[in-house]
């Protein structure tokens, strides 16, 4: 199912389904959305293993965007492998741990670093490790906050420092006051954006900050985003919110998550009335030239390290067009191409997967998955990138 882009439009490819397939889609989505969140069975019957394997294969076919990163042969082999896992059962029984290892093996050829397969909080899919860059701790993380702002004076220059340790949902109450706080720093001589250890999340507020500093919509290096919309993808979003609530306590944030969960359930109910799988192709707007009057026309140092991943790395690519931006620190993690990650629990084994429902491609053909983004100003591991940003004068605008 390949979407064809029409200039100036959002292209949509729709997989039409028969009445029988529609009933199957309703069943699969409902089973995904309602799966128990607690530990699964340590040992499965062959029938239970077949149920879990078929549900996973269905979710892959109807929701997983990692397919766009591999060849047709690799994709077909992965589906065949998943559906064949129950065949390894001995005496009609299969240990959940062996099931998990076999499922992880099906994804061996996939470069997707967002994709995880775990059982009882232990990883079954091993992602090749990379050297970690340790160049100081994010100031917001040190303060146990999602974001902080502050001013610092160094010699004759005043720096505005904006630290973001994670990107909660754009409407999360933890963002209250963020935009106003940023505005108070825009008279500084230079800015420092501390993105160290920021593992991603909802990119909306990060994109607002990019546009504010650029003075408009910057030209994007992105060629297109492919996004899968289906009942199964919506059901996975529901599981993510259920698991988030299960990890939380009470308060404004939990009330907000409960509201999001209720909205997600309403969307799923609407989709199930006419279930279909759609692949949407979105191409970015052309963007505008940098506006020094509307934007921030003074030096901006962005602190990065191997903990900067996903939406954090997306913010870096969005900032590429800003002539005064430089990155300082260490190479990022390399979770760039797969996006909109949701969780998925297999009902019998209790295996938890994280699967992306969107995929990003770049105009220049760059491949950053597992590679990461190299800083313009590298900092030796063990030193603090903030000290470098505050002490070394930035280069002139590009």
Describe the structure.
The chain has two domains: 11-109 and 224-282 and 336-362, no CATH class; 139-215 and 295-335 and 370-391, 2-enoyl-CoA Hydratase, Chain A, domain 1. Helix content is 33%, strand content 21%. The chain contains eleven helices and 15 strands. Strands 1, 4, 5, 9, 10, 13 and 14 form a seven-stranded antiparallel β-sheet that branches. The protein has a six-stranded mixed β-sheet with strand order 6-7-8-11-12-15. Strands 2-3 form a two-stranded antiparallel ribbon. It is elongated, with a radius of gyration of 22 Å. The two termini are 41 Å apart.
Range of strand content: 15-25%
Segments where pLDDT lies below 50 for 5+ residues? 1-9
Note the overall shape: elongated
Number of domains: 2
Class based on secondary structure composition and strand pairing: alpha/beta
Query: Average pLDDT value?
Result: 91
Total strands:
15
Sheet with most strands: 7 strands, antiparallel
Distance between the termini: 41 Å
Radius of gyration (CA) equals 22 Å
Q: What portion of residues is helical?
A: 25-40%
Instruction: Report the total helices.
Output: 11
- How do the helices and strands follow one another from N- to C-terminus? EHEHHEHEEHEEHEHEHHEEHEEEEH
């Amino acid at each position: 199912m390949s979407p064809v882009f029409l200039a100036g439009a959002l292209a949509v490819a729709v997989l039409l389904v028969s009445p029988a397939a529609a009933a199957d889609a309703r069943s699969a989505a409902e089973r995904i959305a309602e799966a128990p969140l607690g530990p699964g069975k340590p040992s499965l019957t062959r029938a239970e293993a077949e149920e879990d394997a078929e549900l996973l294969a269905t979710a892959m076919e109807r929701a997983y965007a990692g397919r766009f990163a591999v060849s047709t042969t690799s994709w077909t082999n992965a589906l065949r492998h998943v559906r064949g896992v129950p065949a390894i059962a001995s005496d009609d029984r299969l240990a959940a741990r062996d099931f998990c290892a076999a499922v992880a093996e099906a994804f061996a050829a996939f470069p997707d670093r967002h994709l995880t397969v775990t059982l009882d909080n232990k990883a079954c899919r091993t992602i090749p490790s990379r050297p970690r860059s340790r160049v100081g701790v994010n100031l917001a993380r040190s303060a146990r906050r999602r974001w902080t702002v502050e001013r610092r004076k160094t010699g004759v220059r005043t720096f505005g420092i904006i630290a973001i340790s994670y990107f909660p949902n754009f409407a999360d109450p933890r963002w209250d006051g963020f935009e106003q706080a940023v505005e108070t720093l825009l008279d500084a001589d230079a800015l420092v954006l501390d993105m160290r250890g920021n593992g991603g999340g909802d990119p909306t507020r990060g994109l607002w900050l990019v546009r504010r500093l650029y003075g408009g919509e910057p030209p994007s290096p992105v060629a297109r985003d492919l996004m899968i919309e289906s009942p199964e993808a919506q059901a996975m979003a529901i599981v993510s919110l259920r698991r988030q609530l299960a990890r939380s306590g009470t308060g404004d944030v939990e009330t907000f998550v409960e509201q999001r969960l209720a909205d997600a359930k309403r969307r799923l109910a609407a989709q199930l009335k006419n279930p279909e799988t759609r692949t949407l192709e979105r191409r970015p707007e052309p963007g505008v030239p940098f506006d020094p009057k509307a934007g921030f026309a003074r030096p901006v140092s962005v602190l990065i390290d191997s903990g900067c991943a996903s939406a954090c790395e997306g913010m870096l690519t969005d900032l590429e067009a800003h002539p005064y931006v430089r990155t300082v620190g260490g190479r990022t993690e390399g979770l760039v191409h797969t996006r909109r990650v949701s969780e998925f629990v297999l009902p019998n084994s209790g295996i938890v997967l994280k699967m992306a429902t969107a995929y990003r491609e770049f105009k220049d053909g760059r491949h950053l998955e597992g590679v990461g983004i190299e800083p313009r100003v590298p900092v030796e591991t063990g030193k603090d990138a903030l000290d470098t940003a505050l002490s070394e004068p930035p280069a002139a605008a590009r």
